[in-house]
Amino acid sequence: MNKIVIDLLLYFSETVFFLYYASSLYAGKRAFAVRAVVALLIHAVLFAVYQRQIVLLNALLFGVLYAAAFYFLYDISLKTAAFQSTLFVLVMFASELAVMGVGTLFFRDFNAMDNDAFAYIYVVVTSKLLFYSLMLAVMKLCALKDKGRPRDRQFWLLLIMPFSGIVMMLLFRYMAYTAPFTGATNLLVTVASVTMLFANMAVFVIYERAVKNAKELYELRAARYKQTMDRQYYEMIAQANLDMRVFSHDVKHHLSILRDMDDADGIHAYIDAMHLDIRHFDAVGVSKNKMLDLVLSKYLRLCEAEGVRFSVDVKTANLRYIDDADLTTLAGNLLDNALEAAREAPDPFIDFVVFSKNALFDGLIIRNRSKTPPIASDGRLHTRKSRKELHGLGLLSVQRAVKKYGGIFDWDYDAAAAVFRVSIAFPKSEKPS
Q1: Alpha-carbon gap, residue 259 to 252, rounded angstroms
Q2: Are 409 and 402 in contact (CB under 8 A)?
Q3: How far is residue 424's CA from residue 362's CA, in Å, rounded to a whole number?
Q4: Which of 359, 353, 322, 325 is nearest to 338 (CA)?
Q5: Amino acid 25: pLDDT
Q6: Is the sign of the CA dihedral 232, 233, 236, 241 positive or negative?
Q7: SS3 state of residue 200
Q8: Would you tell me which of 31, 150, 229, 350 could form a disulfide with 368, CB atoms 3.0–4.6 Å apart?
């Protein structure tokens, strides 16, 4: 394949990579179409200079044009633009030098690319694979400084692809060195090499787009979830206020009846009956955490309907730093399991306690009556439901939520008292990972 065609394709790959790299790290000052056109023009200039074989001018112009592109196309300082362009030049130079050095080590000809067509293909494609891999690693390390970005552990596994490509290119070069390719074979291997380079780039671009779309979808769902939560919370408050007004209206009748009663036992029984109505308002706004209040109010109603005594103590902590979705997953699944066990046991109860300990951690304890011990192996709880492939996901979700906040999950069962207890400790300094 003609050397100029190869160079055109490689400079086009550099254009695509520049746009991908810069757009992944920085907000653009210009529309994407403008950035793409400017990047194409810059690489067209670099391509023309490269054809003149003036290495020093090409490196100098590369650094200057990249610094200008970073600064004028993206919302960064001139210092950052200069740093990024210098980084590009140095990493590209190091990649090419490393690949030619390996070629010299194996094939004993540092300048083979000047005399052998496939040696040239090997050097330029392999150096680009190494260069792009190193710059992608730099891109991810720079992205770690952005607190708003989630850690992307799966990305590092994708680097296996370009490094596998480098090994394959080394194999092609060795085959060509021991038995020179014929015209047709040389063409096919060249096409395969260039295609592999673009395929590697496509994988990373598609992956980054998928991650971005997943993040946007999560944010959209979180916003809708928050709207739903707010609406349910205010509906709950409104209903509680209405119930309170009705109860307040009836208080005068209750007081009138109590005044006329002479039997102490009857008065106590009447007050106990009134106390059940008063408890109806206990969990509303008790923690000053909207989502936690909503969850507790929901299970207060459910426990009342099932005849399960439900006590709440959240006076010293309210887990406000836990995301609403995670808090719902955590508290909801644990209270579901507690209610399911308690409703089948005699003298059923559930205790829900959140507390703060010496400014070091917050604790969550849920105790419930359970007439049968839990099923567990190696310290792990298992579902009692028959189709285990469809159940047990709640406990898995709880453990993931606890791990996300650096928490410690523990449980125990008191067979004598028939009481099951879950204990979770959250370090206050721990941030979600």
Answers
A1: 10
A2: yes
A3: 8
A4: 353
A5: 86
A6: negative
A7: helix
A8: 350
Report DSSP state, residue 373: P
- CA dihedral (58, 59, 61, 67) positive or negative: positive
Determine the pLDDT at residue 111: 57
Helices (H), 261-323: 264-279, 290-306
Instruction: Report the sign of the C-alpha dihedral through residues 115, 117, 119, 123, in that order.
Output: positive
Residue with tokens 């480098």: 166
Determine phi and psi for 315, rounding to 5 degrees.
Answer: -75, -30
* Strands lying side by side in the sheet with 408-414: 309-313, 349-357, 361-369, 419-427, 408-414
| 371: Cβ contacts below 8 Å, ≥ 6 apart | 341, 344, 345, 346, 418
Calculate Rg over the CA atoms of the chain.
Answer: 33
Contact assessment for residue 405 and residue 326, using Cβ atoms and an 8 Å cutoff = yes
Is the pTM higher than 0.70?
A: no
Q: What is the CATH number of domain 285-433?
A: 3.30.565.10
What pLDDT does 222 receive?
66
Q: Which pLDDT does position 217 carry in this prediction?
A: 80
Q: What is the largest CA-CA distance in the chain?
A: 115
Name residue 354's beta-bridge partners. 364
At 49 the three-state DSSP class reads: helix
Nearest CA to 291 among 318, 317, 309? Answer: 318
> How far apart are alpha carbons 38 and 65 in whole angstroms?
10
Domain with CATH 3.30.565.10 in the chain: 285-433
pLDDT at 104: 74
Helices (H), 52-77: 55-73
The rounded average pLDDT for each run of 10 residues, N- to C-terminus, in the chain (433 residues) is 80 91 89 93 91 83 93 93 92 87 69 63 85 86 61 76 86 78 80 87 85 78 66 66 70 71 74 63 64 84 87 85 85 89 92 87 93 71 47 69 89 92 84 56
